[in-house]
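Input record, target 12 of the design panel.
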């Protein structure tokens, strides 16, 4: 499965993405680590390999659908998006996304997340997609709003190893995504 828009393409992760993933995460550590627990100071090639292996296994098991976000022309790695925590009985999943520091502010996260959401509705038959965001993650909140996600609730969730924190839950339906 692969979708394109003007300059962003999402596709399943590949084994050969390991080095590019490692480099982009290391380069983006300062901006990502506050929001993403896996982005720690010692993130190394083994972490990137484990993520790729996990991604491939998740696709095969149909338990999650992580995507590499790449430049549509050069295949340069820009970030990641994906659907996780799928609940087949409720037809719902969580949508996540991140973009490397050099690519922030270019609409890439919104475009990639839109493609992942469209995949969820069209290919997986989801009814709802949730976007869960820390209240002070303004960039991620902006992406959720640009997607058309509506605020639903604030829940307490353990996140980032710091105990329960408020998480803003937004939801999308198929009609929200053009």
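The sequence produced for target 12 reads:
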């Amino acid at each position: 499965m692969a979708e394109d828009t003007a300059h962003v393409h999402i596709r399943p992760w590949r084994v050969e993405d390991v080095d590019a993933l490692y480099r982009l995460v290391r380069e983006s550590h300062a901006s990502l680590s506050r929001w993403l627990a896996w982005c720690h100071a010692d993130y190394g090639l083994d972490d990137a390999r484990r993520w790729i292996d996990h991604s491939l296994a998740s696709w095969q098991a149909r338990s999650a659908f992580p995507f590499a976000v790449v430049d549509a022309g050069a295949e340069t790695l820009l970030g990641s998006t994906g659907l996780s925590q799928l609940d087949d009985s409720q037809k719902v999943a969580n949508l996540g996304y991140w973009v490397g520091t050099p690519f922030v502010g270019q609409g890439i996260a919104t475009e990639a997340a839109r493609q992942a959401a469209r995949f969820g509705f069209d290919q997986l038959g989801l009814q709802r997609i949730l976007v869960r965001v820390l209240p002070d993650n303004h960039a991620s909140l902006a992406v959720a709003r640009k997607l058309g996600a509506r605020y639903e609730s604030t829940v307490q969730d353990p996140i980032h190893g710091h105990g329960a924190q408020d998480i803003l839950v937004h939801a999308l339906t198929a009609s929200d995504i053009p």
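Residues 3-176 form a domain with the Aminopeptidase fold (CATH 3.40.630.30).
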